[in-house]
Design a protein that fits this description.
- The chain is α+β, with helices and mostly antiparallel strands.
- The protein contains ten helices and 19 strands.
- The strands form three sheets. Strands 3-2-1-4-5-6 form a six-stranded antiparallel beta sheet.
- Strand 2 and strand 3 form a beta hairpin.
């Protein structure tokens, strides 16, 4: 790192620079069925370097260094040449600043990762084996520990450590000659945030229900969207309130105005934050990739736009405060019990093959992987078909459950009631 910093500081074509080094150690465990097929330990050490060249506009180019690289001067020369082909309005880099503390390291994952994922695998196998009419098809468990180091030419420096746990598995339900499967994945920074028994039981139930599910009735109905997919509904607000998109004039939301435009708001007020200091958040960190300190930022308060997510570059272009890149998305929960919202809905939708949301228009569509028709005395499983609508219209009338859930990148209501959603089906 000292050699790199010296080379960047002495090069006549480098007018500013920054680098971010990540050392990562990861333990991996693979299961085929209930059998532990393979284990691996993987380490990596990468440094991402960005150089800035002024001519008189400012250009930037990046390259990645590995421990064995010995052509540092050649790489810097190439980056200066590439940066010279780009011309943006001048902008600075973040200055030195105190960085906050964020809870990101699980001691168990940092010190005995292989044992942790081995125990989790045993629990997963045991839990699925106790369920009726299902079997574990495959699973992968990764436990990682990483150290991050940052520096730039203005003297800003920082470092931190973090852990993470990634789990994915497939459960198959079988009835006669028919089969149906569910895929589940989760990423957390601490083992205490992952209830593998409950998640395995929930996916086993989902696999059995998928096997029995039929096509939903088509029409426009009130629906409840629950589970991890609902976080996708809030992604357009992060896109629209990004300073880069404001600078490019592709955002439709202006500060101080309603995030729903001229639409009448009949549902619960929306308050949405981007929180880089949220404990155990997948995107939480003391500082972002540019070196801006992490912070908790209210983007939308009671339905009105209050701030922009702004890197140093686009903050200078727009004359706003630099805030850094997005962290954990936090949506304020509502006053409604989830069961009460379900009583007012025709369908409860719990998973999608893919829920696609256009961040500019807000239009969304998703194929239903599993849901429930709530019109009868008992919920009836449905799959296939799809839902479609517009996020800004739907959330203007939405109601939020008071029950909350945390998915690693999202903290918010467990269920959202949408009053009029188009359902395609039979």
């Amino acid at each position: 790192m000292k050699e790199l910093e010296h080379a960047l500081s002495q090069h006549c074509g480098v007018h500013d620079w920054r680098f971010r080094r990540v050392f990562r150690r990861e333990h991996q465990l693979y299961l085929t069925g209930a059998v532990k097929e393979n284990t691996r330990e993987v380490t990596s050490d990468t440094t991402r370097v960005t150089v800035y060249h002024d001519h008189p506009g400012r250009g930037a180019a990046s390259f990645t260094l590995l421990p064995g690289d010995r052509n540092l001067e050649k790489r810097v020369n190439w980056a200066v040449l590439a940066a010279g082909m780009v011309s943006n309005p001048p902008h600075g880099l973040p200055a030195p600043a105190p960085y906050p503390q964020v809870q990101l390291v699980d001691a168990a994952l940092a010190t005995r990762a292989a044992g942790v994922i081995g125990d989790l695998a045993d629990t997963l196998v045991e839990t699925v084996a106790a369920e009726q009419d299902v079997y574990l098809a495959s699973a992968e468990l990764f436990a990682g520990y990483e150290e991050v180091e940052f520096a730039n030419s203005r003297g800003a420096t920082g470092s931190y450590a973090a852990t993470d746990l990634f789990l994915e598995f497939v459960i198959t339900a079988r009835s006669g000659a028919s089969e149906a499967e569910t895929y589940h994945s989760a990423r957390r920074r601490a083992t205490s945030l992952l209830d593998i028994r409950e998640e395995a039981r929930e996916q086993a139930r989902a696999a059995r229900d998928t096997l029995a599910a039929g096509l939903p009735e088509g029409g426009i109905f009130p629906v409840v969207v629950a589970g991890r997919e609902l976080s996708s509904l809030f992604a357009p607000f992060l896109f629209q309130l990004d300073a880069q998109n404001h600078y490019r004039k592709i955002s439709r939301i202006q500060l101080g105005e309603s995030v729903f435009g001229e639409r009448e708001v009949t549902g619960d007020p929306l308050t949405l934050c981007s929180d880089s200091l949220f404990a155990w958040g997948n995107s939480s960190a003391p500082f972002d990739r540019e070196g801006l300190p992490g912070r908790s930022l209210v983007l939308v308060q009671a339905g009105r736009a209050r701030a922009l997510l702004a890197t140093q570059q686009y903050a200078e272009y727009l004359g706003v405060t630099p805030t850094g890149t997005s962290g954990c998305t936090v949506v304020q929960a509502g006053p409604w019990p989830a069961r009460e919202l379900e009583q007012q809905a025709r369908f409860l939708l719990t998973s999608f093959s893919s829920l696609q949301v256009d961040p500019i228009t807000g239009n969304f569509a998703g194929e239903i992987r599993l849901g429930y028709d709530l019109s009868g005395a008992d919920p009836v499983p449905v799959k296939g078909g799809s839902i479609a609508g517009n996020v800004f219209e739907a959330l203007a009338g939405a109601r939020y459950s008071r029950e909350q859930h945390f998915t690693g990148g999202f903290q918010g209501p467990r269920a959202v009631f949408l009053p009029a959603t188009r359902v395609s089906g039979r």
